[in-house]
Amino acid sequence: MLNKVTPAVYYLSNDDSKERPTLGLVCGDKFSLVIDSGNSVQHAQDFLKEIEALNVPPVKYLVVTHGHWDHILGLNEFGATIIVNSLTNQILEEWQNYSFDDVSLHKYVESNKMSSKCVEIIKNEIPLRDSFKLNSADIIFEKSLTIDLGNKLCVLDTIKGTHSDDSTIVYVPGDKVLFLGDSAYGTTTNSLFHYKQSHLLPMIEEIQKYDATSFILGHESLCDVQEMNLYWKELISTSKATDSTSIDRAIECFEKENNRTPNSNEEFFLKAFVNDQIIRSQ
């Protein structure tokens, strides 16, 4: 069942047990726009069944928030105009060269091109894998793009997130809803989970330019302004306390600056920023 944010904006909840991210739907008077395609053919088809039950205008556009597998592997199912930024398109073109038979998938896991979880989902939820190939993007944009769905605008903006450099966020100004994809999450490099510290403040500044009251992240339920502001506050304070590869130093700096010990979220962020310092020092 789709979650209704406003009469024009919906989302399908994430399912962490299946590595399924949140998928979005924006409906205008003439057309509808989908945000992210899901992690498999099955995920996309499940989403399409929910959309069909709403009796909304036809899906004409599909926007990909970034080029990670769980957001792109369902894109063939929608019969829509595929929209990506130029950086995401480079990643999509790499995936178009992949083969999905068992032997190839095994090689991709061995070379760290795919995770074992990704391969498990592909095997279970993508039929006819031997002939499977991702469709190409139809519209490739650079910094920003505005789509008119008929009395309903969607503003697409490319930002450098703490998760990936190719993040696209989608703002629906008439509803004050902002789809963030995975832009505000961390990522894993060399087996270390980290937040890209140098991207944090510019990213937050870009996101806060938008007059949004509802925020939808790639693996979360709906967040309001208060919840997002708390998230930003915790990220900023922990980043500010981290200037070395020492977690002890980071905690000491945090406690000195805030006159308290970090909570569990802040401990997690401190470790992630320390990991980022480690990666940058290598």
TrEMBL record:
Name of the protein described by the UniProt record: MBL fold metallo-hydrolase
Domain Metallo-beta-lactamase: 20-219
Keywords: Hydrolase
Organism: Sutcliffiella horikoshii
InterPro entries noted in UniProt: Metallo-B-lactamas, NDM-1-like, RibonucZ/Hydroxyglut_hydro
Gene3D superfamilies given in the database record: Ribonuclease Z/Hydroxyacylglutathione hydrolase-like (3.60.15.10)
Molecular functions per Gene Ontology: hydrolase activity
Highest classification ranks of the organism: Bacteria, Bacillati, Bacillota, Bacilli, Bacillales
SMART domains given in the database record: Lactamase_B (SM00849)
